Structures are given as structure tokens and as C-alpha cells.
Amino acid sequence: MMKTIAATLSLQNIRFQHLVWTLLTMTLFVLANLAQAAANLEIDTPAITALKSSMQARHAQLLPHYNSGAVGLTANGLIEVRDTTAVPLKDRGGINSLVSAENTDRNALYKEIAKANGHPEWEGEVRQTFAGRWIDKAQGGWYYRSGSDWAKK
Amino acid sequence: MCNFFRNAVFALLAIYGGQAHAISSIRISVGQVSAPAGEIRNAAFQVDLKGESPSLKLNAELKPANEPQFMPFDLRCGTFWNPRIGVLECLNGMFSAKRIKVPLSAHFGIFPDDFSANIDFKQAGFSDEPGLHAGEKLTGSIRVAAKKQKDLWHWGGLFNWTEGELFWQPFYFGKAGNLFAISGTSQGPHVNIGQAILQVSDVGTMTASAQIDTQSKKAESVKVIARDVDFAGLYQLLLKPMVEKSAFGNLQVSGKADWQFEMKDMQPLNFELNLRDADIEELNGKFAFSNINAHIPWDYNEPQTLTLGYNSGYLLNLPLGTTQLQAEINRYSLTAPVLRLPILDGALKFEDVSAAYLGQKWYWHLQMQLEPITMNEFSQALGWPEMQGKIDGQVPMITYANGLLNMDGTMNFNAFKGNVGMSGLRIEDPLGTVPKLYANLHMRNIDLGDLTRTFNFGAIEGKLEGNVTDLRLENWKPVYMNAKIQTMDGNHLKKVSQRAVENITALGGEGTAAALQRTFLRFFKEFNYEKIGLSCELRQDICKMGGVESTPNGFIIVKGKGIPSVNVNGYTEYVSWADLLERMKRITETNSKMIVK
User: Fold this and answer.
1) pLDDT band, very low/low/confident/very high, at A1 (cuts 50, 70, 90)
2) How far apart are CA B309 and CA B323, in angstroms?
3) pLDDT score at B38
4) pLDDT (average), residues B399-414
5) How many CB atoms lie within 10 A of CB A98?
6) Domain chopping of chain B, boundaries
7) How many C-alpha atoms does B266 have within 13 Å on its Cβ side?
8) Closest residue of B to A52, CA-based?
């Protein structure tokens, strides 16, 4: 009888230890995620406002190219010319500089958001989060990078 | 091989011409044909004689000289016949290949030392693989003729289109009504283009001449001349694609221009741009100039003198008056002892200007002097409150390299009978999306009477001094600074009006209180003070406020002295910068009376 109780206690002890470890690991995991989630992506500074309004002004020019599949979204939060032949002839000469100007703004935006959060080293995470957001918010028919291929939304 | 090709065609014409009625179809296969212009292989001709009129089917693979791969193509002629020996006609034809579809009718004359082709095309479309050379819905004609005299081929060509659009990286011809005429001679690999005329709708006429080595595929020399062309068209067609990524990539222009360009051995040799009565406006509002007359020459070997004048304009909101500039251009550098830009009744004078364009980037340095400008007009032009007095100043040295503008020494401006100095000025990317400015400011002996009247703040008599250290602006808005302004000690008059006290109190925000016995002091129009001061440590949007002294609960903004005197204390230490600006705006704009708590 005593042996059985001892065995049960010992078993409970092991279970308890396991539970403590699980809780500890989960807490650490949650804390780590909380730290990540602490990045305020909606933070506003004059630099971020200027970049967002520059990008907003350019969006009207880019929209027909997203719709036609000429320009697609990349996995690192930028855009890329996917098919030059889908660009109307009159816009074809300017498409590369349009995409390049947008990417300059996007790179600067990720950097500024990380900096405004007081963590310049978060730039990579901010970029990845935005990359996911851009693709989530993309309209049907737009293209985005899926691995090395293009996928249509 | 080229001769073989010609002989084969002649053989075909001879068979077809002589025995057309004896056979129902003719088939000829050719393995490979090479010519300087390219190669053809696996060619299969089939002339069908069964219908009402003979028709042609031609399948082959073509490789133009500048393409890496063979491209299969298909030519069909609804009517294919030769009215006489050496003459071929292809009517209701269609030339098709990958990304090419050209409905056409063509007339060829093929003789041993004489060749001609007249091709009319309708609604034709073509594109290369990356889409960098493409045409859509083109309707027009090509005329080509060549004649051999001794060892020299004399040839000429005419290409015009009346409908459709053409993109030839980086140039776009959007409007139809363009014509390209070319003539010259060829001997061996040397092609001499005696004259090429490009007549572009809405631009004007450009002429060019060139010598080309077809073996090395290099242009030995090229000369392009455009006289009295439309500047808007010239900018859209030729200049914009070349300056797309610079500050000049988004302009609206008008006026007349002459343009000349010469290259030798693929290197630019000289260049000249003359502008007459031209207007330029940057579409993001960064600069504009009207009525420009300019002579902008450039020569690889000889220094040239640039002259440029305009009647009016603006640069980053600064209104510019009638200006005449002159500078020397020596290969990739520009120097000028003085460039004077009149601004209202004064001028911005650049001295010892030196600029260089290296590795596709600009580097420059200059000294700057601001000749006195009346603040009244200057402040109005910038949409600021109307200011009195004059502003003038000096900048010892400004350098610009890698998108970074740096100022050495201190820039001094005189305003409100005092002096404002700026040191450590650095601007990153001044014409970019997010310009960033770093500077330190100090002000001394600012007349508070002038200043408060200007900003409609309520009268304060005295003198003001202040320091703003580590000022950082992003997109011209402050995001960081340690600022402190205060009245100066001395024997001068120190009076503050009741309205100014009320406004200072309002500026201090909620919790700020004027510790005065309102009951009787409110009857006084003005008070004596010992010191007035405010400080702000700005971090992003939050300002940590302070005054001339600290108290256990806050800080003193106005420290009174004598009779009648008044104290104003602040209690809110942390204030949003946007709120502070809003309060400032409310006070100076609406002139509303604030309640003294």
C-alpha cells in the first residue's frame, strides 16, 4: 500500500515537474511573442508620414500594373516587375524607375518604423510582417512571390 | 552564302515565271543562308498555283545579327506573283512569329546589283522577348532601296507610320504621324549613314549622321541635330528617359529648344542644349522657373561657358526673381565665381561654386551670402506671420556629396534686431522623400517687442536669447531637440502685458496657473518681470517642459519683480508637441483671450 502511494506521489512529482516545465516554456514563448508584438506598426513620425503619403501618391500609378500582372509583390515586402510586356507601351520606359522609387520608400519605411519603436534591429521583422500584410491585402488577380514562382491571388 | 541565297531566289523566280502553268505547286527547301544582317535556316517555300491566284507559304527560322537565337517565322501571301523577272509581289500577306504579327502587302525588286522593297503594313504588332522594343497597332509603310555601284552599295529607307504607338527603349513614340528617313552607303562592314531624318509628331525634326562598323557593332561616330523643336516634346521623348531618376525626372515643360549631340567611338564628344522662352515646373512643387533662356554647351575636350537666365521661379518655396547665371563647364565639372539668385528685394549669392559629376553622382561645394531681404515680403511669400525688419546672413562653406549636404562653420542671420546663428547643419537627401536636417541654433538679443508684435502674442518688452541643441527635423518637422529660450539679463525695459501673460499661461497648458491676486491685478495692463523662459526637451512627439526655475510641483515660466508683478507657473511636465503647436497656432492666429486660472 505504502509502495503504491510512494509510486503515485513520485509519478505525481514527475507530472508536476513536467507541468512546471511546460508552463515555463509556454510563458517564455508567450513573453517572446509579446516582445515581438510590442512593435507598433502604426507608429507615426514625420518621416513615416512622408513615406506613407509618397507611397499613397504613387499607388495610383502602380495600381493598373498590379491589376495587369505587370508588377507583383515579393516575399520581402518589396515589389518587382514581373512581366514588362503587360505594361502599356507609354508607361514601359518609366516602369523600372517607378518600381525602384517604390522600393526605396518601402525599405525606408521598414527602417523608420523599427527606429521609431526604438529597436532599429527589428527592421527585418517589420519587413516580414509588412510583406505578409501586403500579400493579405492584395486584390484578387494580383501576383505575389510564392517561393521562386509567382502565384496569382 | 548571300550570293547563294540570291541565286536560289532567282532560280525560284525563273522556274515560277517560265513554267507556272505547267505545274500546280513549287516547293524549295534551303538549309542555311548567312548574310551580314542575320541568318535563315530550314527555309521551306511553297508556291501554290491551284487557286484563282498563286499563293505563298514560307516557313523558316530567322536569326537577326543582334539576336542570340533562331526564331521560327511564317510568311503567307494571299496573292503571290511576279509580274516580270526580278519582281515579286506579296498581297494580303501576313508575317507572323512569336510576339510578332504583321499584316502586310509587299513589293520586291530583286536584281543582282539592285534591290528594292515597298512594304505597307496595317495594325501590326511586335515585341522582343523582354518587351523593350515593341510596337502596337502600327499602320504605315517601309520603303527600302539599294543599288551597287562598283563595290559601294548606295541605299535609302523610309519608315513612316500614321497610326499606332512604338516603344524603343528608352524612347516612346506615342503619337502617330512620325517619319524616319535614312540614306547612306555600305562597303564591307562599314556603314555610312549620310543622313537620317526623324520627324516626330509634336516635337519637330531631328537630323542625324553616323558611321557604323557592323563587325564590331559599334557606332564610330554619331551626330544628332534638332533645331527649333518643341521643348515639351523633346523632354518627353528624349530627355526625360535619360534623367528619369534625377530631380529633373518629373517636370512639366514648355518652350522651344535646339538640341545637338555628337558621339565618337561610343563616347559622347559634345552636347548643346539651347532653350528659348521655356517654362519648367517640377510636379512635386520643389522648383519652377519661367521664361528660361539658356545656352548649355558641353564638350569633352574644350571648356565651355554656360549661360542661363529666367524671369521668375521658386526653389523649395523660396520665390526667385529675374536671374542671369554664368558658369564654366569643363568636362564633368562646373565652376562659377558667383551665382546670384535674386529673392524679392535681396538675393542669395553663391560664391566659389564648384560642382563635379563623378560616377553618376553630384558633388559640390560653395559659399553662401544672403543679401538683405525685407522680412515683410519674405514672410508673406513663405506663408509665415508677417515679420518686420530684414534678414541677411552668411554661410562660410556648404558641401554636398552622396546625398548629404554639410555646412562648415556658423550661418548667421540678423532678424528682430538680434542675431540667429545656425551651426553643425547637415541635411540628408534634401530633395528626397524624407529629408533629414540636423543643426544647432542660438539666438541673442532678439527684440521681444518686435517679435511679439509680429506673432500677435501680446506685448512683451525685453530681449530674448535661446539655444536649440541637437535639433533634428524629419521632412522639415522637429522630432528631437533640447530647446531653451529665456529673457536676457540687463538694464533694459522688462514689461509683460496682461494679454501676453494670459497667452503664456495658455501655452503652459492645463494646470498652468498665474499666481496673481486676480482680484486687483487684473486691472493692470502690464507687469514687471525678472525673467521669462521656457524649455522643451523634444523626443519624437513628447516635449518635456521646463521654465526659468524648478518648483517642487513644476516650474516657473514668468518670474515677477517689483510692483505690480506676476508669476506664471507650469505644472504639466510632459506635453505632446502637436498639442503645443496647436496651442501656439490658436494663440497667434485667433488672438483669443485665454482664461487665467
Assistant:
1) very low
2) 5
3) 77
4) 86
5) 19
6) 1-98, 439-590
7) 5
8) B433
Nearest 5°: the CA angle B72, B81, B85 is 110
Q: Is residue B402's pLDDT more than 70?
A: yes
Pairing between β-strand B204-213 and β-strand B178-187 as defined by DSSP bridges: unpaired
With a cut of 70, say whether residue B419 has pLDDT above it: yes
Q: Is the pLDDT of residue B7 over 50?
A: no
- In this prediction, residues B315-344 reach a mean pLDDT of 91
Give B234 or B22, the one with higher predicted confidence: B234
- pLDDT tens readout for residues B426-469: 999 887 888 999 999 999 999 998 888 777 778 899 999 999 99
Q: Please state, for a pLDDT cut of 90, what percent of chain A lies above it.
A: 59
Q: Mean pLDDT over residues B532-546, rounded? A: 92
CA dihedral A133, A138, A142, A146 (to 10 degrees): 20
Contact criterion met (CB < 8 Å) for B131 and A84 = yes
- Put simply, the answer to whether B540 touches A84 (Cβ < 8 Å) is no
Burial of B205 (0-12, 13-18, 19+ CB in 10 A): middle
Which of A90, A97, A108 is facing B249, going by the closest CB pair? A97
ipTM of the complex: 0.72
Q: Which letter, b or e, does each residue of A103-118 get, where b requires 16 or more Cβ atoms within 10 Å of its Cβ?
A: bbbbbbbbbbbbbbbe
B126–A contact, CB cutoff 8 A: no
pLDDT digits (tens, 9 = 90+) for A69-121: 999 999 999 999 999 999 999 888 889 889 999 999 999 999 999 999 999 99
CA dist list (Å): A98 to A2, A60, A150, B424: 80, 11, 20, 35
Q: From chain B, pick out residues whose CB is under 8 angstroms from the CB of A97.
A: 244-245, 249
**DSSP assigned state of B53:** S
For chain B positions 168-197, those within 8 Å of chain A (CB to CB) are 169-172, 174
What pLDDT shows up at residue B437?
Answer: 94
Task: Report which residue type is found at B239.
Answer: L
CA-based nearest residue to B429, from A44, A50, A93: A50
**Cα–Cα distance for residue pair B142/B157, rounded to 1 Å:** 7
| Residue among A65, A112, A113, A73 nearest A91 (CA) | A65
Residue pair B212/B259 in contact (Cβ under 8 Å)? The answer is: no
- What angle, 0 to 180 degrees and rounded to 10, lies between the N-to-C axes of helices A46-68 and A95-116? 140
Give the mutation candidate from B167, B236, B427, B479 for the A interface (greatest A CB count, under 10 A). B167
Measured between CB atoms, which of A50, A83, A94 is closest to B434?
A50
Interface mutation target, options B138, B434, B472, chain A, most CBs of A under 10 Å: B434
* B401 pLDDT more than 50: yes
Residue B274 confidence (pLDDT):
95
Cβ distance of A47 and B249 shorter than 8 Å: no
Which among A45, A90, A101 has CB closest to B172?
Answer: A90
Burial label for B359, CB within 10 Å (0-12, 13-18, 19+), is exposed
Closest partner residue to B479 (CB to CB) among A46, A97, A105 is A46
Task: Mutate one of B244, B433, B472, B538 to test the A interface: name it (highest A CB count within 10 A).
Answer: B433
- Separation between Cα atoms, residue A24 and residue B508, nearest integer Å: 49
What CA–CA distance (Å, rounded) separates B415 from B445?
10
